[in-house]
Amino acid sequence: MMIYVGNISYSMTTDELKELFVPYGNVKEVKIIADKASGKSKGYGFVEMESDEDGLKAIAALNDSQVKGRNIKVNNAFRKNDTKPAE
Fold first, then answer.
1. Three-class secondary structure of residue 60 per DSSP
2. Looking at the domain assignment, is residue 86 inside a domain?
3. C-alpha torsion 70→76→81→86, nearest 10
4. What are the mean pLDDT values of the chain's consecutive 10-residue runs (87 residues total)?
5. Residues spanned by the domain of 27
6. pLDDT value at position 78?
7. pLDDT tens digit string along 68-85?
8. Is position 14 within any domain?
9. Of 60, 55, 73, which Cα lies nearest the Cα of 1?
10. Which of 67, 69, 77, 71 is nearest to 45 (CA)?
11. How far apart are CA 46 and CA 17, in angstroms?
12. How far apart are CA 57 and CA 84, in angstroms?
């Protein structure tokens, strides 16, 4: 299951983001989106969990939680210009 994580701190690393999700199940991949020109974080990223069940647990537990002084947004990721969840 692919999960969108928004409003993350610009200083957050992929390892730190992964550690947030590990307690809820196996994390397959973590990606923080960066500006192409500057290489700096855009303040959001994606986490892929091995199962939908783990992903739903993580969303329920982490959405609107405070991490590094910011209330993060954690939701099912959607493909660009689509209303179906990403696989």
1. helix
2. no
3. 130
4. 98 98 98 96 98 98 97 90 59
5. 2-63+72-76
6. 83
7. 999 999 999 987 666 556
8. yes
9. 55
10. 77
11. 9
12. 19
Structural domain includes residue 30: yes
Q: Look up residue 21 and give its two tokens.
A: 């999700």
Contact (CB, 8 A) for 47 and 23: no
Beta bridge partners of 49: 27
Split into its structural domains, the chain has a count of 1
Q: Let me know the angle formed at the C-alpha of 28 by 24 and 34, rounded to the nearest 5 degrees.
A: 105
Residue recorded with tokens 């405070």: 66
State the CB neighbour count (10 A cutoff) for residue 3.
26
- DSSP 3-state of 63: coil
| Other C-beta atoms lying within 10 Å of the C-beta of residue 66 | 8
pTM for this entry: 0.89
- The amino acid present at 72, given as its one-letter code, is I
Site of tokens 């199940």: 25
**Other CB atoms within 10 Å distance of the CB of residue 61:** 13
